[in-house]
Amino acid sequence: MSGALLSTRGLSKRFDGLQAVTEVDFDLARGEVRALIGPNGAGKTTLVGMICGRVAPSAGTILFDGEDITGLPAHRRIRRGMAYTFQITSVFAGLSVHENVALAARRRLTGAVRVDAAVSEALARVGLSDRSEEEAGNLSYGHQRLLEIAMGLVQAPRLLILDEPTQGLSDGEIEGFKALIREVREQAAILLIEHNMHVVMELADRVTVLNFGTVLAEGTPAQIHENRAVQAAYLGTG
Ligand SMILES: Nc1ncnc2c1ncn2[C@@H]1O[C@H](COP(=O)(O)OP(=O)(O)OP(=O)(O)O)[C@@H](O)[C@H]1O
Question: Which residue range or ranges hold the ABC transporter domain (predicted)?
Fold first, then answer.
């Protein structure tokens, strides 16, 4: 347990009258790819929002690399090695692809030469090197999603959190995404909110299922696939 990269204990969030997340104990190991799944409204985005510092918990604690980060603002979690693709690094449509990634790189690096080198490397990893000077808003949707991932990668995270990264991607783009994650996992643990079960089955080491704000099940993709309570939750018969 002490070796976990990320741990939550009793993590809870109440919005007015609504209990969105209830006493979640969650452990993510170094180098692990974890999928977080669950029906709409299960609390996935809220849980991830608490982990990355966008949502203040009502109760509970969050440890990152053994240190209590529960009260730390989002930008200081980024500096400690957490990157979150969706809200923190949203694409600026009017800026070039390169400049978007450079903005993210400057959270970590100073000096134009070092920033440029990191940007080039991140763009190469997601396969966008040849689009570097293009306005980000002109990229296809799939390429904008890859750009978001490049913006996460350039921060050299130890934990990369991706909120529905394959949503809206073509089959070919999803294949590319899977290959990219297999590469990225060599350097970072990955927490993936993902609705596409093929992607979950192929990429995740373990799967955590949220339902009504609590952990319904946790296990390997095969275990989760066979879990009756999970099947019931998805069919709405639970
Ligand atoms: N800022 C907020 N204020 C009030 N209620 C909220 C807020 N954010 C989320 N909720 C509620 O909390 C519950 C959990 O929402 P959340 O977005 O975390 O679920 P989710 O599992 O990510 O769903 P989806 O798969 O649809 O994105 C929902 O009932 C939602 O309406």
Answer: 6-237
Q: Judge if the beta carbon of residue 39 lies within 6 A of ligand 1.
A: no
Domains of the chain, CATH where assigned: 1-81+157-238 (3.40.50.300), 90-156 (no CATH)
For 98-121, the pLDDT digits (tens) are 999 999 999 888 899 999 999 999
pTM confidence score = 0.90
Best substitution site from 21, 36, 45, 208 to test ligand 1's pocket, by max atoms within 8 Å of Cβ?
45
Give residue 135 CA to ligand 1 midpoint distance, Å.
32
Residues 217, 230: contact at Cβ < 8 Å?
yes
Contact criterion met (CB below 8 Å) for 31 and 185: yes
Helices (H), 53-170: 74-79, 97-105, 112-126, 141-153
**What is the SS3 string spanning 9-51?**
EEEEEEECCEEEEEEEEEEECCCCEEEEECCCCCCHHHHHHHH
pLDDT at 238: 42
Q: Which of 21, 37, 44, 196 is the best mutation target for the ligand 1 pocket, counting ligand atoms within 8 Å of the beta carbon and taking the most?
A: 44
